TrEMBL record:
Protein name listed in UniProt: Receptor-like serine/threonine-protein kinase
The EGF-like domain, residue ranges: 285-321
Record-linked PROSITE patterns: BULB_LECTIN, EGF_3, PAN, PROTEIN_KINASE_DOM, PROTEIN_KINASE_ST
Domain Protein kinase: 494-778
Domain of life: Eukaryota
InterPro entries for the chain: Bulb-type_lectin_dom (IPR001480), Bulb-type_lectin_dom_sf (IPR036426), EGF (IPR000742), Kinase-like_dom_sf (IPR011009), Pan_app (IPR003609), Prot_kinase_dom (IPR000719), S-locus_recpt_kinase_C (IPR021820), S_locus_glycoprot_dom (IPR000858)
Alphabetized UniProt keyword annotations: ATP-binding, Disulfide bond, EGF-like domain, Glycoprotein, Kinase, Membrane, Nucleotide-binding, Phosphoprotein, Receptor, Serine/threonine-protein kinase, Signal, Transferase, Transmembrane, Transmembrane helix
Catalytic reaction equation(s): L-seryl-[protein] + ATP = O-phospho-L-seryl-[protein] + ADP + H(+); L-threonyl-[protein] + ATP = O-phospho-L-threonyl-[protein] + ADP + H(+)
Amino acid sequence: MNTNKFIFCLVHLLCSLLKISALTYSITTSQSLNDDETLVSEGGSFELGFFSPGSSKDRYLGIWYKNIPIRTVVWVANRQNPIKDLSGKLMINRTSSLLLSDGNNSVVWSTKPLNGGQDPILQLLDSANLVLRDNKDGNVDVYLWQSFDYPSDTLLPGMKLGWDLRTGLKRGLSSWKNFDDPSPGTLSSGIELDEYPQAVMWKGSRKFFRGGPWNGLRFSGAPELRLNPVFEFEFVSNQDEVYYIYQLMNKSVITRLILNETTSSRQRYVWVEADQSWKLYASVPRDYCDDYAFCGANGICSISDSPVCKCLEGFKPKSAQSWNAMDWSQGCIRNEPLDCQRKHDFIKFSGLKVPDTEHSWVNKSMNLKECREMCLKNCSCNAYTNSDIRGRGSGCALWFGNLVDIRQFSDNGQELYIRMPASKGDRPPPVKVVVIIVASIAAVCVMLLVSYCVCRRKMKSEGEFGDNISEGPKEDLDLPLFNLATISHATDNFSVKKKLGEGGFGPVYKGTLEDGQNIAVKTLSKNSGQGLNEFKNEVKLIAKLQHRNLVKLLGCCIEDGEKILIYEYLPNGSLDSFVFDRSRGKLLDWSKRFNIICGVARGILYLHQDSRLRIIHRDLKASNVLLDKELNPKISDFGMATTFGGDESGETTKRVVGTYGYMAPEYAFYGLFSVKSDVFSFGILLLEILSGKKNRGFTHPQNQNLIGYAWRLWTEGRPLELIDSLLEDSAIQPEILRCIHIALLCVQQSPEDRPTMSSAVLMLNGESTLPQPKHPGFLIDLIPGETGPSSSNKDPCSANYFSITSLEPR
Ligand SMILES: *[C@@H]1O[C@H](CO)[C@@H](O)[C@H](O)[C@H]1NC(C)=O
Ligand SMILES: *[C@@H]1O[C@H](CO)[C@@H](O)[C@H](O)[C@H]1NC(C)=O
Ligand SMILES: *[C@@H]1O[C@H](CO)[C@@H](O)[C@H](O)[C@H]1NC(C)=O
Ligand SMILES: *[C@@H]1O[C@H](CO)[C@@H](O)[C@H](O)[C@H]1NC(C)=O
Ligand SMILES: *[C@@H]1O[C@H](CO)[C@@H](O)[C@H](O)[C@H]1NC(C)=O
Ligand SMILES: *[C@@H]1O[C@H](CO)[C@@H](O)[C@H](O)[C@H]1NC(C)=O
């Protein structure tokens, strides 16, 4: 037995040695790469070799992911010149050109000859960049040539999309013709070098979709591009270079952006290890309004309106007839032509994707006022705005001629000032002196009167405003203020023995007031992310919320820079200490768990709908559900809650808060949150309560997480196997089945498919029929599969395993 094992191991060892030694990591002038050989990147992520796409027999030289079983080609050398047989050969010649030749020694693809390079060496980097560098040159980051300068249809992390102005090199993407043919199709994408450079996608030579100019934070037409924990992005624009680039925060995530000819779109895919498949993450164009100039010149597109096209204020359809027939392509003209001799004004529009910058002008050091003056000076200037919207805005961008391809966003749009004739009603010039004098006196009187009124009004409003900003500690928050001494006494001076745990922002202590009442004291650690604003936000929100499934806030304490919240004390602690614990878990039989599920659902429903403020919790999880004496659930921790209609500008939306494992994919990736992201978290919570297992950290022989596992059991018709073994005696089958079903509905990939909390409550009560769930969201797949490589049944010889693993919360 043991000898057998030993021999087995030995064979494997030999086998892996052999295989590794057969891998090629670089090519020099004396070597070549033949059709049956491949060049592997050092970390083993990518592979360069010959392949035949789709059903074609033609051979191409390309780069693909080495560890993804579905052959996914990210770069092709001889896109337009296939080799007809297996005689292809890649070499480096004496002037450091890469040469790809066929059996007749005719060159099908080559790179430009170079002077540099005594000892050129070709290597594939782990980023998928194929680079030619001089082996004599100690600096390994200097390349004679690199494939990243000549992208195919795929933009990978670390690739630049745009221009090197010093050499005139333009890096753009172009789609494959079809699955069988990598030669350039009709779709291309890149950066248009206007005065104000913009991202554009073309179909043939026609503009097809415009990402728009970079406004300091994002492309104007890409409101979904936000700070997110998966990738960071940057736009560089200076004398030397103009490009967009993105980098992964965690290199273990596999994602790519491609131009897809079949769907005429630019798509982002993410590799999901558990499913062994690529998942479509995002796609543009998204809707009609993304079609270039859908509403014609001076029209504005708003997808939530009907019809979607409108003329800008002060404009009318060029042809009313075709406009009314829903043909908007002719666009709009001014109600009355601009008279350059007259005075002009500007109307401010908000929430826009700014117009095409083909006829634009930019000065990065001007301010908005100078910008306006500049625009007024030239009669064909029709609009202006800040070229950079970071902070309070800076720089100046002007638009000349028609304003094309404007759309309205509900979120993350920009401001634009559009030129209009000054409001009418100018007094005709008076003829008689007497009239002038009388008029002047009258005017002076009126002005005095008006300024008196304005002053009074202003003083009054300043007073009101002043009240608002003078936020002293004694601010009236409609709830009791405790003083620090009381709290300190109640908690034995914040003794370690009284510590209940560590919350998201700092430690939580148990306290006992003079009258014997128990309280929970949440102190906010000074280095917690939560500033005074967030603290006040939390206090004000929670103070207004009264529901039996929400933890009650008794008061707060703001003193000496301390920020402390005082809550009702719940003796049973949080749900996670029951559900994930084998012995305490027994205390929660099915009827208790069902009661908890329904209670949590009602609590969230209240937050979403019934409370005066509509609130998204954003960090719903088992440890944020507390249990009272009767094991009734109460939701806690609204520190991160954000109301609709509140101050959504500034930092709130830029910061993604929440806990991986519970976060909906659209939230984790793009920071897009909605009531539906709470619904997603609720779905996860449901699965955890039902199974007694954590979504995060759950491992299964087949390298699946809890959602993947639940989904598989569901599709295989044995959902009940998910259930916590502790529930076997108390389970009520139809209720359990319904809960699993609802959970899967809540974690669906697309937010639109997920039910609202009110329908989830109806479903739980059995008052509603349940649709079939679609495929669940997958970000949660980015959770470590500890059993990953060792237990999977992959070829033991392959040198490297590649798996999407965890994204750790900071
Ligand atoms: C190397 O190949 C390039 C491209 O075909 C060619 O222009 C150049 O002359 C070749 N150099 C030598 C020394 O043959
Ligand atoms: C080589 O050249 C011959 C004659 O020009 C042609 O028939 C044959 O197809 C070529 N072979 C390859 C591999 O290109
Ligand atoms: C293009 O999109 C379709 C539909 O989403 C997809 O099936 C296909 O795989 C995509 N093509 C590529 C090259 O990814
Ligand atoms: C941009 O504006 C600044 C400040 O008004 C001015 O000094 C500078 O000359 C302008 N640059 C160009 C290119 O117009
Ligand atoms: C106004 O701007 C346009 C576009 O930049 C330019 O062609 C034109 O000469 C300018 N006119 C004046 C009077 O400056
Ligand atoms: C990135 O993924 C690796 C696993 O490949 C994991 O060990 C690591 O903690 C992750 N790092 C971050 C910052 O999330």
